[in-house]
Amino acid sequence: MFFSLSREQLHKLIDANWNEASCHPEDKELQKLLGGCREWSFELVCCNYFLAQILDQKLKHGEDIQNLNAILERILNIHEEINLTIEEFDERFVGYLFENIRNKKLSLEDNLIDIRNHFERRSYG
User: Fold this and answer.
1) Which terminus of the chain is more exposed, N or C, with fewer CB under 10 A?
2) Which helix (H) or strand (E) element contains residue 119?
3) In the chain, how many domains are there?
């Protein structure tokens, strides 16, 4: 089983340093997701595009480059603690995106998550 993270969810997890106790107390769903992937009950998936946007936003808001490097290093090495996959926008993903009509009623972010979920089901047509 898997769960694709939105940019907002990924941002919250980064800010909480991937720690359930540091998540906002009212954000029970995020705490549950993090706990589940820490127990290897399911896989969390984030798009590298969302990660790049978050890091870029933090840089523009004056975040120290060394802190951004530490965030990136933590994410790249967190697979030892939790079941997290960083999904790349490869040629297969981009090809599917351009070959298929996206839902114009959804934001680009929601469309990207839908497409990622489509691939997870191993449905390439």
Assistant:
1) C
2) helix 108-120
3) 1
β partners of residue 86? 46
Whether 120 is covered by a domain: the verdict is no
Q: 79: which DSSP letter?
A: G
Give burial (CB, 10 Å; 0-12/13-18/19+) of 84.
Answer: buried
User: Could you tell me if 71 and 111 are in contact, meaning their C-beta atoms sit under 8 angstroms apart?
Assistant: no
pLDDT tens, the chain, 125 aa long: 888 899 999 999 999 988 888 888 888 888 888 889 989 888 999 989 899 999 999 999 999 999 999 999 999 999 889 999 998 877 777 677 666 656 778 787 887 788 777 777 755 44
One-letter amino acid of 50: F
d(CA 32, CA 27) in angstroms, rounded, equals 9
Q: Which amino acid is at 102?
A: R
> How far is residue 37 CA from its own chain's centroid?
13
Residue 57 within a domain: yes
- The token pair at 64 is 């120290």
| Residue 125 domain flag | no
DSSP 8-state class, residue 44: E
